[in-house]
Design a protein that fits this description.
about 150 residues; alpha+beta; 3 domains; 5 helices
Amino acid sequence: MGVTTVTISCDNCKKEFKKIKKDIKNKHVFCSKECENEYRHKQTHEIRKCEFCGEEFECSKKSTKKFCSRECVGKWQSTQLGNDNPRFKQKEICCEWCNKKYYTKQSKVNNGQHKFCSTKCRQKWFGNEYSQRESTKLASQKRAITML
């Protein structure tokens, strides 16, 4: 009773080789450890096209990568401004002091607060409008008296 060998084909390189029949336990057979590693790598990795420059790059099939390099990610991000940005959900409104149009978050549009394009405009409004109201003057006087 001798050892039975069979001629089989490597699942990676397709080269034929002989193997002892009882040693064939797995679904896939390989002529060498290098061929096995190469085959496994092909099963878990794929070639993708960079969404910015179009260059091909290799990554894991499970990966969410869309770009070949950090450089391409940075260049792509610099193009995603204003309305081109998928998360841009701002509304154009007018400054209550200088009437300049500017963008602000949707959540700040109907929050009951005054709308200013800059700190400078807010300060001018406060100095000329808000602080001159009678109700504001009375409240300031009451606070001043309690501090004495």
